[in-house]
UniProtKB/TrEMBL annotation:
Keywords, sorted A to Z: Methyltransferase, Transferase
InterPro entries: SAM-dependent_MTases_sf, SAM_dep_MeTrfase_SAV2177_type
The protein's name: SAM-dependent methyltransferase
Organism from which the protein derives: Streptomyces halstedii
Keyword Methyltransferase (UniProt): yes
Keyword Methyltransferase: yes
GO biological process: methylation
Domain of life the protein comes from: Bacteria
GO MF, one annotated term: methyltransferase activity
Pfam families, per database record: Methyltransf_19
Length: 271
């Protein structure tokens, strides 16, 4: 499928302040970031040296969850908050199992749009498309994604490391409810989300850094994270730290003292 046009208006990238997607890229060893992103990234490392490992744990969870969903027969995915492409991407993982899988990526960051061509390299049998939209503009996302996805059939909705950048006041729960409401029975919701439960002092300092740079950060407790899945059936091993999500084992792997990630993850099915 043809990707979005890279016009000069849509590609205005603000390099005057750090951006979470570009910092995430830096933590993963990518090159699509700027000095301002590296500077804040290094400040975060001074507080919590394990941040790069946390980023990799989150990425690995996305890979496992996508592979598991493909194994359950999911052949359509909507990934909102895509971030800067890092291979393997979600569509590559899913299309390994089923080449006919259809995937729509969505992000609002112009630097992601600049790399949309890399996101769109899928199998000839499947389909991959990209939507340039704010995560809170659910109607626009659904309208454009509907050109590639059939919402009368099950969809894997992926919200990886997105919702902790959307405050309650900005409608985090409402946007999830709206998205889930249009999904067909048999669809799945996958979320990874920052929490302060595991490393409270470090999380407090990182939160202060974000506020100092006028960036939104909304880490949530396990209870508040669970609220995103209201009315859905959470699959085993339930709500766990990222490295503990191994449905093939049916139970969390590490103990509480062994957790290195900074977030909860879960996958839930719509009945």
């Amino acid at each position: 499928m043809a990707g979005p046009e890279n016009d000069s208006t849509s590609l205005r990238i603000d390099t005057s302040r750090p951006h979470p997607a570009r910092m995430y890229d830096w933590f993963l060893g990518g090159k699509d970031n700027y000095p301002v992103d590296e500077a804040m990234g290094r400040q975060m490392l001074a507080v919590e040296p394990g941040v790069p490992v946390m980023a990799k744990v989150n990425r690995a969870f996305m890979h496992r969850a996508t592979s598991w969903l493909a194994g359950q027969g999911i052949r359509q995915f909507l990934d909102i908050g895509t971030g800067i492409p890092t291979e393997p991407n979600l569509h590559q993982v899913a299309q390994r199992t089923a080449p006919t899988t259809r995937v729509v990526y969505c992000d609002h960051d112009p630097i992601v749009l600049a790399h949309a061509a890399a996101l769109l390299k899928g199998t000839p049998e499947g389909a991959v498309d990209y939507v340039q939209a704010d995560a809170r503009d659910v109607d626009a996302i659904l309208e454009q994604a509907g050109r590639t996805l059939d919402f009368t059939q099950p969809v894997g909705l992926s919200l990886i490391a997105l919702l902790h950048f959307v405050s309650d006041e900005d409608g985090a729960y409402a946007l999830v409810d709206r998205l889930v409401s249009v999904l067909a029975p048999g669809s799945y919701l996958t979320i990874s989300h920052l929490t302060a439960d595991f490393h409270p002092e470090e999380a407090r300092k990182v939160d202060e850094m974000y506020k100092a740079n006028a960036l939104t950060l909304a880490p949530r407790t396990r209870e508040r994270f669970a609220a995103f899945f209201e009315g859905l059936d959470i699959v085993e091993p339930g709500i766990v730290a990222g490295e503990a999500w191994h449905p093939e084992l049916g139970a969390p792997v590490p103990g509480q003292d062994d957790i290195v990630s900074a977030g909860y993850v879960a996958v839930a099915r719509k009945g």
